[in-house]
Write a structure and sequence with these properties.
Blueprint (H helix, E strand, L loop, with lengths): L2 E5 L2 E4 L4 E8 L6 E8 L6 E6 L6 E3 L7 E6 L4 E6 L8 E9 L15 E2 L3 E6 L1
Parallel strand pairs: 2-11
Antiparallel strand pairs: 1-3, 3-8, 4-5, 4-9, 5-6, 7-8, 9-10, 9-11
Amino acid sequence: QVQLVELGGGLVQAAGSLTLSCAASGLSLNWSVMAWFRQAPGKEREFVASIAPSGTLATYHPSVEGRFTISRDNAKNMVYLQMNTLKPDDTAVYYCASKQTASPDATYSWAGSYEYWGLGTQVTVSP
């Protein structure tokens, strides 16, 4: 069975950094677009970042571009989200997601594109 498990959430002060990890099992990351989404209380789940199966292309939501970096290690079935210069508005539950694809350079920003989801990890950024 496919499982995605997020790790690394926690409490950090504004301007600080956190790194999230997503451990995937039951699927090949070589043929999977991977992404991070987040959902804050009272808000819709929103796209954060997506990385293509090849690892050479990535897309970001404008609110995090330049601060967050998504990366992957297909051999280890791991995906990461390095978050720098965190803001209180970054506070949310962060979810790892995956979508199988035959395109090595595909990325997706729509949550409905993704087939598998982790349970999420809480990131709280204090003022």
